[in-house]
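Obj.: predict assembly geometry.
Materials: sequence records (below).
Method: joint structure prediction, all chains together.
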Amino acid sequence: MDAIKEFFNFFADPRVFFLLTTGAFVFAVWRRDLFVKPSVGYGLQIFLVLFFGLGLLDENFRLIIGKPDNVPIVGLIFLLLFFTWYSMRQAVLNDQRIANAEPVAEKVEEDRVWVWPDLVYIELICLVLCSVVLIVWSIVLKAPLEQPANAAATPNPSKAPWYFLGLQEMLVYFDPWLAGVVLPSLIIVGLMAIPYIDTNPKGNGYYTFKERKAEITIFLFGFVVLWSSLIVLGTFLRGPNWNFFGPFEYWDIHKLEALTNVNLSEYIWLRGLGVGMPSHWLFRELPGILLVSFYVFGLPVVFARTVFKRYYEKLGPARFYVTAFLFLSMLSLPVKMLARWLFNLKYVVAIGELFFNI
Amino acid sequence: MADEPNVPASGTPAPKPAAKPAPPSVPPGLAGKTTSAAAAPRRPAAKKKVEDDTSPLLSRRGWIGLAWGSFTAASAAGLAATGRFMFPNVLNEPPQQFRIGFPDEYAPGVDERWKDRFGVWIVRTPSDMVQEAAGFYALLVTCTHLGCTPNWLSAEDKFKCPCHGSGFRPTGINFEGPAPRPLERARIVLAEDGQILVDKAQKFQFELGQWADPESFLRV
Ligand code: FES
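Observations (raw C-alpha coordinates):
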Protein backbone atom coordinates (compact mmCIF):
# COMPACT_ATOMS: atom_id res chain seq x y z
CA MET A 1 0.00 0.00 0.00
CA ASP A 2 2.69 2.45 0.97
CA ALA A 3 4.56 1.65 -2.20
CA ILE A 4 1.50 2.60 -4.25
CA LYS A 5 1.13 5.84 -2.32
CA GLU A 6 4.79 6.62 -2.83
CA PHE A 7 4.30 5.92 -6.50
CA PHE A 8 1.50 8.48 -6.80
CA ASN A 9 3.33 10.98 -4.64
CA PHE A 10 6.19 10.72 -7.08
CA PHE A 11 3.90 11.54 -9.97
CA ALA A 12 2.66 14.57 -8.09
CA ASP A 13 6.09 16.16 -8.27
CA PRO A 14 5.42 19.21 -10.43
CA ARG A 15 8.02 18.29 -13.03
CA VAL A 16 6.63 14.80 -13.43
CA PHE A 17 3.04 16.01 -13.17
CA PHE A 18 3.50 18.59 -15.89
CA LEU A 19 5.46 16.37 -18.24
CA LEU A 20 2.92 13.61 -17.71
CA THR A 21 -0.06 15.85 -18.47
CA THR A 22 1.66 17.20 -21.56
CA GLY A 23 2.65 13.69 -22.63
CA ALA A 24 -0.87 12.37 -22.11
CA PHE A 25 -2.23 15.31 -24.09
CA VAL A 26 0.15 14.76 -26.99
CA PHE A 27 -0.70 11.09 -27.03
CA ALA A 28 -4.44 11.72 -26.89
CA VAL A 29 -4.26 14.08 -29.86
CA TRP A 30 -1.76 12.10 -31.86
CA ARG A 31 -3.33 8.65 -31.35
CA ARG A 32 -6.86 9.97 -31.07
CA ASP A 33 -8.20 6.86 -32.79
CA LEU A 34 -7.12 4.95 -29.66
CA PHE A 35 -8.09 7.66 -27.20
CA VAL A 36 -11.70 7.84 -28.36
CA LYS A 37 -12.37 4.11 -28.03
CA PRO A 38 -15.20 3.58 -25.52
CA SER A 39 -13.03 1.14 -23.60
CA VAL A 40 -10.36 3.80 -23.12
CA GLY A 41 -12.89 6.44 -22.11
CA TYR A 42 -14.65 4.19 -19.61
CA GLY A 43 -11.33 2.79 -18.46
CA LEU A 44 -10.03 6.26 -17.59
CA GLN A 45 -13.18 7.18 -15.70
CA ILE A 46 -13.13 3.88 -13.78
CA PHE A 47 -9.47 4.40 -12.97
CA LEU A 48 -10.28 7.85 -11.59
CA VAL A 49 -13.18 6.51 -9.53
CA LEU A 50 -10.93 3.82 -8.08
CA PHE A 51 -8.13 6.28 -7.46
CA PHE A 52 -10.32 8.72 -5.55
CA GLY A 53 -12.37 5.99 -3.89
CA LEU A 54 -9.44 3.98 -2.59
CA GLY A 55 -7.46 7.13 -1.92
CA LEU A 56 -10.09 8.21 0.58
CA LEU A 57 -8.86 5.44 2.86
CA ASP A 58 -5.72 7.49 3.39
CA GLU A 59 -6.04 10.20 5.98
CA ASN A 60 -3.93 12.85 4.24
CA PHE A 61 -5.70 12.25 0.95
CA ARG A 62 -9.08 12.53 2.66
CA LEU A 63 -8.09 15.85 4.21
CA ILE A 64 -7.18 17.47 0.92
CA ILE A 65 -9.88 15.90 -1.27
CA GLY A 66 -12.69 16.26 1.24
CA LYS A 67 -12.09 19.93 1.94
CA PRO A 68 -15.35 21.63 0.91
CA ASP A 69 -13.35 24.04 -1.25
CA ASN A 70 -11.82 21.22 -3.23
CA VAL A 71 -14.76 18.91 -3.84
CA PRO A 72 -15.85 20.71 -7.04
CA ILE A 73 -12.36 20.30 -8.47
CA VAL A 74 -12.71 16.53 -8.19
CA GLY A 75 -15.89 16.86 -10.24
CA LEU A 76 -14.04 19.10 -12.66
CA ILE A 77 -11.48 16.38 -13.35
CA PHE A 78 -14.18 13.87 -14.28
CA LEU A 79 -16.19 16.33 -16.38
CA LEU A 80 -13.18 17.75 -18.19
CA LEU A 81 -11.97 14.30 -19.13
CA PHE A 82 -15.42 13.21 -20.22
CA PHE A 83 -16.14 16.19 -22.43
CA THR A 84 -12.70 16.19 -24.00
CA TRP A 85 -13.09 12.52 -24.74
CA TYR A 86 -16.64 12.88 -26.03
CA SER A 87 -16.00 15.78 -28.40
CA MET A 88 -12.83 14.15 -29.62
CA ARG A 89 -14.82 11.01 -30.30
CA GLN A 90 -17.43 12.90 -32.31
CA ALA A 91 -14.63 14.57 -34.26
CA VAL A 92 -12.84 11.32 -35.06
CA LEU A 93 -16.06 9.63 -36.16
CA ASN A 94 -16.85 12.57 -38.43
CA ASP A 95 -13.33 12.56 -39.82
CA GLN A 96 -13.83 8.93 -40.79
CA ARG A 97 -17.10 9.76 -42.50
CA ILE A 98 -15.46 12.61 -44.38
CA ALA A 99 -12.65 10.30 -45.45
CA ASN A 100 -15.27 7.85 -46.77
CA ALA A 101 -16.97 10.70 -48.63
CA GLU A 102 -20.08 10.37 -46.44
CA PRO A 103 -21.93 13.37 -45.03
CA VAL A 104 -21.02 14.28 -41.44
CA ALA A 105 -23.25 13.02 -38.66
CA GLU A 106 -24.73 16.43 -37.98
CA LYS A 107 -25.97 16.66 -41.59
CA VAL A 108 -27.67 13.26 -41.49
CA GLU A 109 -29.58 13.99 -38.32
CA GLU A 110 -31.11 10.59 -38.14
CA ASP A 111 -31.64 10.92 -34.40
CA ARG A 112 -33.47 14.20 -34.75
CA VAL A 113 -36.06 14.90 -32.04
CA TRP A 114 -38.63 17.63 -31.41
CA VAL A 115 -38.03 20.50 -29.06
CA TRP A 116 -41.45 19.87 -27.60
CA PRO A 117 -41.81 17.50 -25.86
CA ASP A 118 -38.44 15.72 -26.11
CA LEU A 119 -35.95 18.50 -25.38
CA VAL A 120 -38.10 20.33 -22.88
CA TYR A 121 -38.68 17.13 -20.92
CA ILE A 122 -34.96 16.43 -20.78
CA GLU A 123 -34.37 19.95 -19.57
CA LEU A 124 -37.00 19.56 -16.89
CA ILE A 125 -35.40 16.35 -15.63
CA CYS A 126 -31.96 17.99 -15.62
CA LEU A 127 -33.34 20.93 -13.71
CA VAL A 128 -34.82 18.70 -11.03
CA LEU A 129 -31.68 16.59 -10.73
CA CYS A 130 -29.35 19.60 -10.53
CA SER A 131 -31.50 21.22 -7.87
CA VAL A 132 -31.46 18.03 -5.82
CA VAL A 133 -27.68 17.71 -6.12
CA LEU A 134 -27.15 21.35 -5.17
CA ILE A 135 -29.49 21.15 -2.19
CA VAL A 136 -27.92 17.97 -0.86
CA TRP A 137 -24.47 19.40 -1.44
CA SER A 138 -25.21 22.61 0.40
CA ILE A 139 -26.62 20.66 3.35
CA VAL A 140 -23.88 18.06 3.60
CA LEU A 141 -20.77 20.18 3.03
CA LYS A 142 -20.28 23.15 5.31
CA ALA A 143 -19.23 26.45 3.78
CA PRO A 144 -15.47 26.80 4.27
CA LEU A 145 -15.53 29.88 6.47
CA GLU A 146 -12.46 30.91 8.41
CA GLN A 147 -11.75 33.04 11.44
CA PRO A 148 -12.13 36.83 11.19
CA ALA A 149 -9.55 38.48 8.96
CA ASN A 150 -6.35 39.54 10.64
CA ALA A 151 -3.80 41.56 8.75
CA ALA A 152 -0.97 40.07 10.75
CA ALA A 153 -1.87 36.44 10.06
CA THR A 154 -2.17 35.12 6.51
CA PRO A 155 -3.63 31.61 6.36
CA ASN A 156 -1.02 29.07 5.46
CA PRO A 157 -1.30 28.06 2.65
CA SER A 158 -3.25 31.02 1.36
CA LYS A 159 -5.16 29.99 -1.72
CA ALA A 160 -7.08 32.03 -4.25
CA PRO A 161 -10.58 30.90 -5.32
CA TRP A 162 -10.22 27.81 -7.45
CA TYR A 163 -10.68 29.54 -10.80
CA PHE A 164 -7.73 31.82 -9.97
CA LEU A 165 -5.39 29.07 -8.82
CA GLY A 166 -3.84 28.89 -12.28
CA LEU A 167 -3.01 32.59 -11.98
CA GLN A 168 -1.66 32.13 -8.48
CA GLU A 169 0.59 29.39 -9.79
CA MET A 170 1.84 31.73 -12.51
CA LEU A 171 2.72 34.31 -9.88
CA VAL A 172 5.38 31.96 -8.58
CA TYR A 173 7.24 32.13 -11.87
CA PHE A 174 6.75 35.68 -13.13
CA ASP A 175 6.62 39.19 -11.78
CA PRO A 176 3.15 40.28 -10.64
CA TRP A 177 2.53 42.64 -13.55
CA LEU A 178 3.41 39.90 -16.05
CA ALA A 179 1.71 36.99 -14.29
CA GLY A 180 -1.30 38.95 -13.13
CA VAL A 181 -2.05 41.20 -16.08
CA VAL A 182 -0.09 40.78 -19.29
CA LEU A 183 0.13 37.02 -19.66
CA PRO A 184 -3.43 36.13 -18.59
CA SER A 185 -4.84 38.72 -20.99
CA LEU A 186 -2.67 37.49 -23.84
CA ILE A 187 -3.52 33.86 -23.09
CA ILE A 188 -7.26 34.48 -22.94
CA VAL A 189 -7.20 36.67 -26.05
CA GLY A 190 -5.13 33.98 -27.76
CA LEU A 191 -7.51 31.19 -26.81
CA MET A 192 -10.42 33.20 -28.17
CA ALA A 193 -8.77 34.68 -31.24
CA ILE A 194 -6.55 31.96 -32.66
CA PRO A 195 -9.42 29.81 -34.00
CA TYR A 196 -10.83 32.86 -35.80
CA ILE A 197 -7.62 34.27 -37.23
CA ASP A 198 -7.50 31.24 -39.47
CA THR A 199 -9.73 31.82 -42.50
CA ASN A 200 -10.39 28.14 -43.04
CA PRO A 201 -14.17 27.96 -43.62
CA LYS A 202 -14.45 24.29 -42.70
CA GLY A 203 -15.47 22.78 -39.41
CA ASN A 204 -18.53 24.98 -39.02
CA GLY A 205 -21.49 23.38 -37.29
CA TYR A 206 -20.05 19.91 -36.95
CA TYR A 207 -17.32 18.13 -35.02
CA THR A 208 -14.06 17.57 -36.84
CA PHE A 209 -10.43 17.40 -35.94
CA LYS A 210 -8.62 16.90 -39.22
CA GLU A 211 -9.98 20.03 -40.84
CA ARG A 212 -8.93 22.36 -37.98
CA LYS A 213 -5.89 20.54 -36.58
CA ALA A 214 -3.74 23.47 -35.43
CA GLU A 215 -6.58 25.50 -33.91
CA ILE A 216 -8.05 22.62 -31.92
CA THR A 217 -4.66 21.45 -30.68
CA ILE A 218 -3.62 24.94 -29.59
CA PHE A 219 -6.91 25.57 -27.83
CA LEU A 220 -6.92 22.22 -26.04
CA PHE A 221 -3.33 22.72 -24.97
CA GLY A 222 -4.04 26.16 -23.58
CA PHE A 223 -7.25 25.17 -21.86
CA VAL A 224 -6.70 21.61 -20.67
CA VAL A 225 -2.97 21.45 -20.08
CA LEU A 226 -2.21 25.00 -18.99
CA TRP A 227 -5.36 26.42 -17.46
CA SER A 228 -7.11 23.39 -15.98
CA SER A 229 -4.17 21.26 -14.94
CA LEU A 230 -2.66 24.25 -13.14
CA ILE A 231 -5.93 24.60 -11.23
CA VAL A 232 -5.74 20.94 -10.25
CA LEU A 233 -2.11 21.33 -9.28
CA GLY A 234 -2.79 24.42 -7.22
CA THR A 235 -5.78 22.85 -5.49
CA PHE A 236 -4.38 19.50 -4.50
CA LEU A 237 -0.62 19.71 -4.60
CA ARG A 238 0.20 23.06 -3.02
CA GLY A 239 0.47 23.01 0.74
CA PRO A 240 1.83 25.08 3.62
CA ASN A 241 4.40 27.71 2.65
CA TRP A 242 3.31 27.11 -0.92
CA ASN A 243 5.47 24.00 -1.09
CA PHE A 244 4.54 21.01 -3.21
CA PHE A 245 3.03 18.01 -1.48
CA GLY A 246 2.01 14.67 -2.92
CA PRO A 247 -1.67 13.77 -2.47
CA PHE A 248 -0.79 11.16 0.15
CA GLU A 249 1.80 13.26 1.89
CA TYR A 250 1.42 14.81 5.33
CA TRP A 251 1.26 18.62 5.21
CA ASP A 252 4.37 19.33 7.19
CA ILE A 253 4.86 23.05 7.83
CA HIS A 254 8.55 22.42 8.26
CA LYS A 255 9.05 20.62 4.99
CA LEU A 256 12.26 21.96 3.56
CA GLU A 257 12.44 22.60 -0.12
CA ALA A 258 15.44 24.30 -1.62
CA LEU A 259 14.00 27.07 -3.76
CA THR A 260 17.12 29.12 -4.20
CA ASN A 261 16.78 30.63 -7.63
CA VAL A 262 19.38 32.20 -9.84
CA ASN A 263 19.04 34.87 -12.49
CA LEU A 264 20.19 34.24 -16.02
CA SER A 265 22.73 37.06 -15.77
CA GLU A 266 24.32 35.35 -12.80
CA TYR A 267 24.50 32.09 -14.70
CA ILE A 268 26.25 33.74 -17.61
CA TRP A 269 28.58 36.26 -15.99
CA LEU A 270 29.48 34.47 -12.77
CA ARG A 271 29.16 30.76 -13.43
CA GLY A 272 29.69 30.65 -17.19
CA LEU A 273 32.34 33.26 -17.90
CA GLY A 274 33.55 33.76 -14.36
CA VAL A 275 34.21 37.46 -14.93
CA GLY A 276 31.93 39.05 -12.34
CA MET A 277 28.76 41.06 -12.85
CA PRO A 278 28.97 44.09 -15.13
CA SER A 279 28.01 47.17 -13.21
CA HIS A 280 25.52 48.73 -15.62
CA TRP A 281 22.19 46.94 -15.83
CA LEU A 282 21.88 47.25 -19.59
CA PHE A 283 25.11 45.41 -20.17
CA ARG A 284 24.42 42.95 -17.36
CA GLU A 285 21.03 41.97 -18.72
CA LEU A 286 22.00 42.06 -22.38
CA PRO A 287 22.00 38.26 -22.82
CA GLY A 288 18.51 38.00 -21.31
CA ILE A 289 17.19 40.90 -23.37
CA LEU A 290 18.58 39.32 -26.52
CA LEU A 291 17.06 35.99 -25.59
CA VAL A 292 13.61 37.48 -24.96
CA SER A 293 13.73 39.52 -28.19
CA PHE A 294 14.67 36.41 -30.10
CA TYR A 295 11.80 34.51 -28.49
CA VAL A 296 9.28 37.21 -29.36
CA PHE A 297 10.56 38.47 -32.72
CA GLY A 298 13.00 35.88 -34.05
CA LEU A 299 11.24 32.63 -33.32
CA PRO A 300 8.14 33.38 -35.44
CA VAL A 301 10.41 34.07 -38.42
CA VAL A 302 12.29 30.83 -37.85
CA PHE A 303 8.98 28.98 -37.60
CA ALA A 304 7.71 30.59 -40.79
CA ARG A 305 10.83 29.48 -42.66
CA THR A 306 11.00 25.93 -41.32
CA VAL A 307 8.44 23.84 -39.44
CA PHE A 308 5.34 25.89 -40.12
CA LYS A 309 6.18 26.86 -43.66
CA ARG A 310 2.94 25.52 -45.13
CA TYR A 311 0.89 27.14 -42.40
CA TYR A 312 2.67 30.43 -43.08
CA GLU A 313 1.89 30.28 -46.78
CA LYS A 314 -1.72 29.47 -46.05
CA LEU A 315 -2.26 32.31 -43.57
CA GLY A 316 -0.10 35.06 -45.00
CA PRO A 317 2.38 37.09 -42.95
CA ALA A 318 0.01 39.27 -40.88
CA ARG A 319 -2.22 36.47 -39.68
CA PHE A 320 0.71 34.17 -39.14
CA TYR A 321 2.67 36.60 -36.97
CA VAL A 322 -0.32 37.48 -34.83
CA THR A 323 -1.06 33.79 -34.28
CA ALA A 324 2.58 33.06 -33.56
CA PHE A 325 2.82 35.93 -31.09
CA LEU A 326 -0.30 34.85 -29.20
CA PHE A 327 0.81 31.24 -29.19
CA LEU A 328 4.31 32.07 -27.99
CA SER A 329 2.95 34.20 -25.14
CA MET A 330 0.87 31.24 -24.09
CA LEU A 331 3.87 28.97 -24.34
CA SER A 332 6.11 31.27 -22.34
CA LEU A 333 4.42 30.03 -19.18
CA PRO A 334 5.39 26.34 -19.45
CA VAL A 335 8.78 27.34 -20.83
CA LYS A 336 9.56 29.44 -17.79
CA MET A 337 8.12 26.84 -15.42
CA LEU A 338 10.34 24.17 -16.89
CA ALA A 339 13.35 26.47 -16.73
CA ARG A 340 12.58 27.10 -13.06
CA TRP A 341 12.15 23.44 -12.25
CA LEU A 342 15.14 22.22 -14.21
CA PHE A 343 17.70 25.04 -13.81
CA ASN A 344 16.34 27.06 -10.86
CA LEU A 345 16.16 30.00 -13.23
CA LYS A 346 14.66 33.01 -11.49
CA TYR A 347 14.49 35.76 -14.11
CA VAL A 348 15.66 35.89 -17.69
CA VAL A 349 15.81 39.65 -17.54
CA ALA A 350 16.17 41.04 -14.03
CA ILE A 351 16.32 44.82 -13.88
CA GLY A 352 15.54 45.41 -10.24
CA GLU A 353 16.58 49.04 -10.70
CA LEU A 354 13.57 49.66 -12.94
CA PHE A 355 11.21 47.13 -11.33
CA PHE A 356 11.25 45.23 -14.57
CA ASN A 357 11.76 41.49 -14.49
CA ILE A 358 10.83 38.77 -16.96
CA MET B 1 -55.86 75.27 -50.16
CA ALA B 2 -54.54 77.68 -52.74
CA ASP B 3 -57.03 80.34 -51.72
CA GLU B 4 -56.36 80.01 -48.04
CA PRO B 5 -54.18 83.14 -47.69
CA ASN B 6 -57.11 85.09 -48.98
CA VAL B 7 -59.43 84.00 -46.27
CA PRO B 8 -58.58 86.61 -43.61
CA ALA B 9 -58.31 89.29 -46.26
CA SER B 10 -61.77 88.66 -47.65
CA GLY B 11 -63.27 88.74 -44.21
CA THR B 12 -65.97 86.23 -45.07
CA PRO B 13 -66.44 83.41 -42.57
CA ALA B 14 -64.96 80.21 -43.95
CA PRO B 15 -65.44 77.48 -41.38
CA LYS B 16 -64.39 74.63 -43.64
CA PRO B 17 -60.74 75.46 -44.33
CA ALA B 18 -60.19 76.75 -40.79
CA ALA B 19 -61.19 73.47 -39.22
CA LYS B 20 -58.77 71.48 -41.29
CA PRO B 21 -55.37 72.75 -39.99
CA ALA B 22 -56.58 72.90 -36.38
CA PRO B 23 -54.52 70.47 -34.27
CA PRO B 24 -56.33 67.75 -32.36
CA SER B 25 -56.87 68.70 -28.78
CA VAL B 26 -53.73 67.84 -26.81
CA PRO B 27 -53.00 68.43 -23.14
CA PRO B 28 -50.41 71.15 -22.62
CA GLY B 29 -47.84 68.59 -21.39
CA LEU B 30 -47.42 67.15 -24.83
CA ALA B 31 -46.74 70.28 -26.78
CA GLY B 32 -43.49 68.88 -28.17
CA LYS B 33 -45.20 65.78 -29.48
CA THR B 34 -47.92 67.70 -31.22
CA THR B 35 -46.20 68.11 -34.54
CA SER B 36 -45.56 64.41 -35.06
CA ALA B 37 -49.02 63.45 -33.88
CA ALA B 38 -50.56 66.02 -36.17
CA ALA B 39 -48.33 65.10 -39.07
CA ALA B 40 -49.60 61.54 -39.06
CA PRO B 41 -53.04 61.70 -37.56
CA ARG B 42 -54.12 58.57 -39.36
CA ARG B 43 -51.72 56.29 -37.47
CA PRO B 44 -53.82 54.64 -34.80
CA ALA B 45 -50.82 53.96 -32.51
CA ALA B 46 -49.96 57.61 -32.25
CA LYS B 47 -53.54 58.49 -31.64
CA LYS B 48 -53.91 55.95 -28.87
CA LYS B 49 -50.88 57.28 -27.04
CA VAL B 50 -52.43 60.66 -27.02
CA GLU B 51 -55.63 59.31 -25.56
CA ASP B 52 -53.74 57.42 -22.81
CA ASP B 53 -52.24 60.62 -21.74
CA THR B 54 -55.39 61.91 -20.20
CA SER B 55 -54.62 60.35 -16.82
CA PRO B 56 -56.63 61.87 -14.03
CA LEU B 57 -53.66 61.81 -11.65
CA LEU B 58 -50.65 63.21 -13.45
CA SER B 59 -49.75 64.20 -16.93
CA ARG B 60 -47.20 62.12 -18.88
CA ARG B 61 -44.58 64.76 -18.26
CA GLY B 62 -45.46 64.70 -14.60
CA TRP B 63 -45.00 60.95 -14.34
CA ILE B 64 -41.64 61.02 -16.05
CA GLY B 65 -40.51 63.85 -13.87
CA LEU B 66 -41.55 61.90 -10.80
CA ALA B 67 -39.76 58.75 -11.98
CA TRP B 68 -36.52 60.53 -12.82
CA GLY B 69 -36.73 62.56 -9.68
CA SER B 70 -37.07 59.53 -7.42
CA PHE B 71 -34.40 57.64 -9.36
CA THR B 72 -31.99 60.52 -8.97
CA ALA B 73 -32.79 60.84 -5.30
CA ALA B 74 -32.26 57.12 -4.70
CA SER B 75 -28.96 57.16 -6.60
CA ALA B 76 -27.77 60.19 -4.71
CA ALA B 77 -28.67 58.55 -1.40
CA GLY B 78 -26.82 55.38 -2.43
CA LEU B 79 -23.80 57.39 -3.46
CA ALA B 80 -23.85 59.33 -0.23
CA ALA B 81 -24.02 56.09 1.75
CA THR B 82 -21.05 54.75 -0.20
CA GLY B 83 -19.16 57.94 0.45
CA ARG B 84 -20.01 57.74 4.15
CA PHE B 85 -18.61 54.22 4.15
CA MET B 86 -15.17 55.68 3.43
CA PHE B 87 -15.17 57.40 6.83
CA PRO B 88 -15.84 54.72 9.44
CA ASN B 89 -16.77 55.74 12.96
CA VAL B 90 -13.86 53.83 14.44
CA LEU B 91 -10.52 53.58 12.69
CA ASN B 92 -8.44 50.76 14.03
CA GLU B 93 -5.18 51.90 12.59
CA PRO B 94 -2.19 51.08 14.76
CA PRO B 95 0.01 54.06 15.46
CA GLN B 96 2.91 54.55 13.10
CA GLN B 97 5.27 55.47 15.92
CA PHE B 98 5.57 53.45 19.08
CA ARG B 99 7.91 52.59 21.95
CA ILE B 100 8.68 48.95 22.36
CA GLY B 101 10.56 48.79 25.66
CA PHE B 102 14.21 48.79 26.61
CA PRO B 103 16.96 47.14 24.62
CA ASP B 104 17.85 44.68 27.37
CA GLU B 105 14.35 43.20 27.19
CA TYR B 106 15.25 41.55 23.91
CA ALA B 107 17.21 38.36 23.39
CA PRO B 108 19.26 37.91 20.23
CA GLY B 109 17.27 36.79 17.22
CA VAL B 110 13.84 37.54 15.74
CA ASP B 111 11.24 38.79 18.17
CA GLU B 112 7.60 38.36 17.21
CA ARG B 113 5.86 40.10 20.10
CA TRP B 114 4.87 43.21 18.08
CA LYS B 115 3.85 41.43 14.90
CA ASP B 116 0.10 41.41 15.60
CA ARG B 117 -0.16 44.86 17.10
CA PHE B 118 2.23 46.96 15.09
CA GLY B 119 3.24 44.79 12.15
CA VAL B 120 6.98 44.67 12.77
CA TRP B 121 9.55 42.08 13.69
CA ILE B 122 12.28 43.31 16.01
CA VAL B 123 15.57 41.59 15.31
CA ARG B 124 18.58 41.79 17.58
CA THR B 125 21.76 40.80 15.86
CA PRO B 126 25.36 40.55 17.00
CA SER B 127 26.53 41.83 13.63
CA ASP B 128 24.45 43.43 10.91
CA MET B 129 25.32 42.63 7.30
CA VAL B 130 25.36 46.26 6.19
CA GLN B 131 26.26 48.20 9.32
CA GLU B 132 28.66 45.58 10.64
CA ALA B 133 27.76 46.31 14.23
CA ALA B 134 25.66 44.78 16.99
CA GLY B 135 22.16 46.14 17.46
CA PHE B 136 18.51 46.20 16.44
CA TYR B 137 16.50 46.61 13.29
CA ALA B 138 12.74 46.51 12.67
CA LEU B 139 11.46 44.53 9.69
CA LEU B 140 8.02 45.28 8.27
CA VAL B 141 5.84 42.17 8.07
CA THR B 142 4.72 42.82 4.48
CA CYS B 143 5.94 40.46 1.77
CA THR B 144 7.55 42.44 -1.04
CA HIS B 145 5.90 40.21 -3.63
CA LEU B 146 2.18 40.93 -3.24
CA GLY B 147 1.84 41.94 0.36
CA CYS B 148 0.88 38.82 2.33
CA THR B 149 2.27 38.41 5.83
CA PRO B 150 5.09 35.87 5.98
CA ASN B 151 5.59 33.51 8.90
CA TRP B 152 8.76 33.32 10.97
CA LEU B 153 10.01 29.74 10.96
CA SER B 154 12.56 29.60 13.75
CA ALA B 155 13.59 26.02 13.00
CA GLU B 156 14.57 26.93 9.44
CA ASP B 157 15.81 30.36 10.44
CA LYS B 158 13.81 32.16 7.77
CA PHE B 159 10.62 34.07 7.00
CA LYS B 160 8.38 32.15 4.64
CA CYS B 161 5.40 33.61 2.79
CA PRO B 162 2.32 31.36 2.57
CA CYS B 163 0.99 32.93 -0.62
CA HIS B 164 3.59 32.12 -3.26
CA GLY B 165 6.42 30.73 -1.21
CA SER B 166 8.88 33.60 -1.00
CA GLY B 167 11.58 33.12 1.62
CA PHE B 168 13.59 35.78 3.48
CA ARG B 169 16.59 35.45 5.73
CA PRO B 170 16.48 37.00 9.22
CA THR B 171 18.27 39.99 7.72
CA GLY B 172 15.27 40.50 5.43
CA ILE B 173 17.14 39.50 2.28
CA ASN B 174 14.98 37.51 -0.15
CA PHE B 175 16.54 34.25 -1.24
CA GLU B 176 13.80 32.03 -2.61
CA GLY B 177 10.47 32.28 -4.35
CA PRO B 178 9.12 35.15 -6.42
CA ALA B 179 9.72 38.14 -4.11
CA PRO B 180 11.75 40.64 -6.14
CA ARG B 181 13.42 42.51 -3.27
CA PRO B 182 14.18 42.24 0.46
CA LEU B 183 11.75 43.08 3.25
CA GLU B 184 11.73 46.73 4.25
CA ARG B 185 13.14 48.04 7.50
CA ALA B 186 11.54 50.77 9.60
CA ARG B 187 13.21 53.67 11.35
CA ILE B 188 14.47 52.60 14.76
CA VAL B 189 16.06 54.94 17.33
CA LEU B 190 16.38 55.38 21.07
CA ALA B 191 13.78 57.64 22.67
CA GLU B 192 14.76 60.14 25.41
CA ASP B 193 13.58 57.75 28.11
CA GLY B 194 15.90 55.03 26.88
CA GLN B 195 13.20 52.94 25.20
CA ILE B 196 13.43 51.80 21.62
CA LEU B 197 11.28 53.90 19.31
CA VAL B 198 10.08 52.44 16.02
CA ASP B 199 8.65 54.67 13.32
CA LYS B 200 6.95 52.85 10.46
CA ALA B 201 6.32 56.04 8.55
CA GLN B 202 9.91 55.99 7.42
CA LYS B 203 11.04 52.93 5.50
CA PHE B 204 14.47 51.82 4.39
CA GLN B 205 14.95 49.63 1.32
CA PHE B 206 18.04 47.54 0.82
CA GLU B 207 18.09 47.76 -2.98
CA LEU B 208 18.22 51.54 -2.75
CA GLY B 209 21.17 51.36 -0.39
CA GLN B 210 19.14 52.75 2.49
CA TRP B 211 20.12 50.14 5.05
CA ALA B 212 23.34 52.06 5.55
CA ASP B 213 21.30 54.93 6.99
CA PRO B 214 22.05 55.31 10.74
CA GLU B 215 18.32 55.48 11.57
CA SER B 216 17.62 52.12 9.94
CA PHE B 217 19.68 50.38 12.58
CA LEU B 218 20.04 50.90 16.31
CA ARG B 219 23.54 50.23 17.60
CA VAL B 220 23.83 49.07 21.18
S1 FES C 1 2.86 37.63 -1.48
FE1 FES C 1 4.53 36.70 -0.47
S2 FES C 1 5.17 35.33 -1.99
FE2 FES C 1 3.58 36.32 -3.05
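Conclusions so far: The longest helix of chain A spans residues 71-99.
To do: check interface contacts against the pulldown list.
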